Amino acid sequence: MLKQPDQLEDIFLKVREGETPSRDEIIFMYEEADLNVLGEMARKLADQKSGNNVSFVSNMILNYTNICNVRCNFCAFYRTGKESDSYLLSSDQVLAEIEPYYRNFHITQLLIQGGVNPDLPLEYYTTLFRSIHERYPDLGIHGLSTSEISFIARKEHTSVPDIIRELVDSGLQTIPGAGAEIFSDDVRKVLGRPKGSGQQWLDVMEAAHRLGVKTSATMMFGHVEEAYHKADHLLSLVRLQQKHHGFVSFTPWNFEPGNTQLQRSGLVKYRAGGADVLRNIAISRIVLNNSIPVIQSSWLTNGIQMGQMSVLFGANDWGGTIYDEKVIPATGKQVGNLRKDAIIQGLHQIGFNALERDNLYRVIENYPA
């Protein structure tokens, strides 16, 4: 058996030559590899992709409803619709929410997600997106999860591709990666997700990619998954990306257990630590380097300093500014608002140039370190 430094060097050389690490190699990196060596490898690979540049987007997250019929064990945000704090925003209310951030902070991306609200027809979404696009034509709508899109298709008795076409015609630009969690049915059963919903996520994304719609990808770690589950998840993304090249970025998120059923049941008592976060960032860079070259830091759940560390461990996109996000605070963790200046300063502090981008990863402005 190879010694650890030799095995990691072999993986590094393989990735530099355009290959993807094997399942066993990914499991080794999760379970045995030295974290600092992984970080060094990941940063070298990121340097080859994007040099000393890290991108970010002026973004607002808008949670249009918290009513959801999926009721995941890892979610503290959803309501059934009977609670006093259940809500649904109208198109006019959404426009009113967007206006101050668009006017004052010049946001170029709107991440719009809620729950799988069983009362909403396709018309709600097409009217909403059309209203946003007409009022703010240069604001990229990064909208809905695969679960929302799948449910709308079932409710309307039509296909997922037809729903995506309707949404795009109404103003949708890209689809976020929410709902990926871990693809394994065994894990998803514990998380409270329906059997086959991991494959459903992949199928919806492939449908979007076939239509030329770009999407992002995610993975949620730090709950009940094992190393091999994460390896299989990453390799599933590689296989889909090789077909259509539709993913523009990947973000590994650590699970926030506060106020969730998983915490109440005792299955998950604590959130993942910083070392685990950095290991997932580094391995994401190494595994996806030749297929999804943009790795996004998960600063939202971990703060600015961990966002900086994520860059040093292989991330080359910060993510976005945050205004009025509601899902993470539902767990009891307060994230506050993060403006553009704080991101630029955070990147400059560690010696990186900040590139402001739009929703399609086109550079708008360069802020050199």
Question: How would you describe this protein?
Answer:
This protein is of the alpha/beta class. The protein has one domain (21-367): Aldolase class I (TIM Barrel, Alpha-Beta Barrel), CATH 3.20.20.70. It has 14 helices and 10 strands. The protein has helices at residues 4-16, 23-31, 35-50, 91-105, 122-135, 146-155, 160-170, 185-191, 197-210, 227-244, 261-264, 274-288, 304-312, 340-349; strands spanning 53-57, 59-63, 109-113, 140-143, 172-174, 215-221, 247-254, 317-320, 353-357, 363-367. The strands form 3 sheets. Strands 8-1-9-10 form a 4-stranded mixed beta sheet, with helices on one face. Helix 1 packs parallel to helix 3 and helix 6 (146-155) packs across helix 9 (197-210). It is globular and about 60 Å long. The termini are far apart.
The count of helical stretches stands at 14
**Mean pLDDT rating:** 89
Query: In the CATH classification, which architecture applies?
Result: Alpha-Beta Barrel
Strand content: 5-15%
Category by helix and strand content: alpha/beta
Q: What is the helical fraction, as a range of percent?
A: 40-55%
| Dominant shape | globular
What's the domain count? 1
SSE order, one letter for each helix or strand: HHHEEHEHEHHEHHEHEHHHEHEE
Q: Please give the largest β-sheet.
A: 4 strands, mixed
Distance between the termini: 44 Å
Radius of gyration from the CA trace? Answer: 20 Å
Number of strands: 10
- Main sheet: strand order: 8-1-9-10
CATH topology: TIM Barrel
CATH level 4 superfamily: Aldolase class I
What's the CATH class label? Alpha Beta
